[in-house]
Each structure stands twice: as C-alpha cells, then as structure tokens.
C-alpha cells in the first residue's frame, strides 16, 4: 500500500538501521537466486527513487550490511549511482564505501568477494577517467586461471572491466536509456586500451578449457565494448 501511495513506511529507515550484518546469511543453495534478485533490483533503482527517496536510502543501508560475494555489487553499484544523481550520498559516504571495498581487495586475495567489489569500484570511478588499478586487477584475474579465484569472480570480472571503461546499457540503474542504447566510453579511454582488452576477452571466449559461463561473459562484454 505504501508503494502504491508512493511513500515509504514511517519507520522504514529506523528498521533498516536496526538490522545487523549478522542478520543476513545466504546459503549455497540460494546464491544463484539472490544474484538474480540483485540484478533485477539494480534495474529498478531509478523507479525506486521516483517512488520515494526514503525507500532508496533504506535499501542502501541494508545493502551495506548484506554479505559480500553474492552479487550485491550489481545492486549496490546501481543504488550508489542513482543516489549520487539524486544527491542523496555525501563525499563521506563515498569515501567510506571506497575504503571498505579497498580493504576487501587487500585482504581477500582469492575470495568470492571480488565479484562484488570490482563492480562497485568500477562504478565509483570518475566519469572521465579509467581506474587503471581495477582494469589491471581484472586483467590479472582473466589472464591467469591458476590463481584459484572463484567461478563467480571470473564470470563478473569481464563486466567489471567493461564498466571501468564506461557505461553498460540497461545494467546499473540506467546506464543506458533503453534496450537500443549503446555503451559510452569514458573520455580518457584510448583505442589501445580497448584493443588490448578486447584481445584478452577474445582469448578467454575462445579458450575451450575455460568454464562456459566465463566464456559467455567474455563474449557478451566484447559485444558491449564493440558497440
């Protein structure tokens, strides 16, 4: 009823703030389901903002408390982007999230958390500049299949590096205006950078020993970069 009336519950933000990180647990049998939910909600973020800003703020609070490593990066990146456009986030919020993500990258060398963190860091990149630390890390993960990164990390890495280079149509809360829109590269992206990454993704997509899902992700992102 609150959604129909385009307003949040009066105590929504208080309820979200009372929740603890330990209240959330995703078991192995539901990881694929929660990933699908995260991606679906990432597409809905602009609509959530249109309904009520408090709902978006509440989702941001809960997302920061949800466990990493289950695809929440898709939704968190979208929520952050929409909140930034609506001026709901402060520089302090951005610095806190950036510090949190950087800490995970330093501590979880081969953990599944990377699939979330790389995507969020790519979204937080300056609109004009490419975050070379992200692209370099993505390149390292894709080039060396002996690093023992989880399958989820290797699947998401292609998307993270594409996001670091620019926008991705549809995903992340309206990067594109619709299904027919094309990706837009950041101002500082060079043809050499794109060429090198396309060559790497092509090698991954052509590797018959690689997991099919990793190959499909690489092929999809080749298409995005080519558009």
Task: Provide structural commentary.
This protein has 227 residues and is an all-alpha fold. 63% of the residues lie in helices and 0% in strands.
Topology:
Elements: H1 12-18, H2 31-51, H3 53-65, H4 72-85, H5 91-107, H6 114-123, H7 132-143, H8 151-165, H9 171-174, H10 191-206, H11 212-226
Helix pairs in contact: 1-3, 2-3, 2-4, 3-4, 4-6, 5-6, 6-8, 7-8, 8-11, 10-11
Instruction: Please give the count of helices.
Output: 11
Largest β sheet strand count, sense and barrel closure: none
Annotation, overall tally of beta strands: 0
Q: Give helix % range.
A: 55-70%
Proportion of β residues? under 5%
Low-confidence stretches: 173-180
Secondary-structure element series: HHHHHHHHHHH
Overall pLDDT, averaged?
A: 76
The rough form would be described as: globular
Give the end-to-end Cα distance, rounded to a whole number of Å: 41 Å
- Category from helices, strands and their pairing: mainly alpha
Rg over alpha carbons: 18 Å
Key features of this structure:
globular, about 0% strand, 11 helices, about 230 residues, mainly alpha
Summarize the structure.
The protein has 227 residues and is mainly α.
